[in-house]
Design a protein that fits this description.
The longest helix has 53 residues, at 213-265. The protein is elongated. It has helices spanning 3-32, 36-41, 61-74, 77-89, 95-133, 148-183, 191-208, 213-265. The protein has one domain (3-89, 101-253). Residues 33-62, 76-81, 136-141 and 249-254 have low confidence and may be disordered. Helix 3 (61-74) packs parallel to helix 8, helix 4 (77-89) crosses helix 6 and helix 7 packs antiparallel against helix 8 (213-265). It contains 8 helices and no strands. The chain is 79% helix and 0% strand. The protein has 266 residues and is mostly helical.
């Protein structure tokens, strides 16, 4: 079996496993979240006044967690390509230089996320205080019409804040996880290990939510979305390993060709 065919076969298997994991998580979320599209997009509502959003259960913990993790899953591909772009820009860095470069990036993104999370936390507290002062409750339809512009404006502010915070959190997660996994020595994890992790997480979700099938589907969807991000990071490390191996092979062939030219000229 040639080197390229082996890499192609392993990459195809990992891609198919990613599709199965993503499809399972999306399917569980579709069964659990009845208003899936409205909950995911967080569009401000013009008729229903569930705090300006159309959502099936805005106070349900599993619905909120699943919404955030599924959005993270859907946007996981873009930061992966950005990480590959950063890695390809610095192919000749030494180990200490590479460590310094990634430390600066991660510290900047971490500080920005902490600042953004803190400002958003106080923003949500302010919005909650306003809704409490004006006597607006979730699902309460009889409100004063003069408060509708205020509610819509606050809803759009919250929508923009959650979108920006989520994008930066995804970027931080998808750039830091492959780097630290590589530092711990787990350069590649075989598919058998991934299947064991998947089965173990499914059994844990089943044991935690045995009486209620809806909660089991919600937990399973959250678990699958988290596992999808982990598999994306491992696949990124796999392709980086392939690119590094091909680069070394090409470099050795080039050096060997130069030596042959020198010996033939002599």
């Amino acid at each position: 079996m040639s080197l390229s065919f082996r890499y192609f076969k392993e990459g195809t298997r990992r891609l198919s496993w990613l599709c199965v994991t993503f499809g399972t998580g999306l399917g569980c979320g579709a069964f659990y979240g009845h208003g899936l599209v409205e909950s995911l997009l967080l569009f401000p509502s013009l008729s229903g006044m569930s705090f300006g959003f159309v959502a099936h259960a805005p106070t349900d913990l599993f619905e909120v967690l699943f919404r955030v993790l599924l959005l993270t899953t859907l946007c996981a591909c873009l930061p992966t390509f950005l990480w590959t772009f950063f890695e390809s820009l610095h192919p000749g860095l030494q180990r200490n230089e590479s460590w310094m470069f990634h430390t600066h990036i991660l510290s900047f993104l971490g500080s920005f996320c902490v600042l953004l999370w803190g400002s958003g936390f106080f923003l949500l507290i302010g919005i909650s205080c306003l809704t409490t002062v004006y006597g607006i409750d979730l699902g309460h339809q009889e409100i004063h019409t003069g408060l509708l512009p205020l509610l819509r404006g606050l809803a759009w502010v919250r929508f923009l804040w959650e979108g920006v915070f989520l994008l930066f959190w995804i970027f931080l997660f998808c750039t830091s996880l492959p780097f630290f996994v590589h530092l711990l020595g787990y350069t590649l994890i075989d598919l058998e290990g991934l299947r064991k992790i998947w089965a173990l997480g499914t059994l844990v979700c089943l044991s935690l939510a045995m009486p209620t099938p809806d909660v089991f589907l919600g937990l399973l969807g959250i678990w699958m979305c988290s596992l999808f991000l982990f598999e994306m990071s491992l696949s990124l490390l796999f392709w980086a390993h392939v690119r590094q191996g091909l680069r070394k092979t090409y470099f050795c062939r080039e050096r060997w060709g130069q030596k042959n030219q020198i010996f033939s000229s002599k």
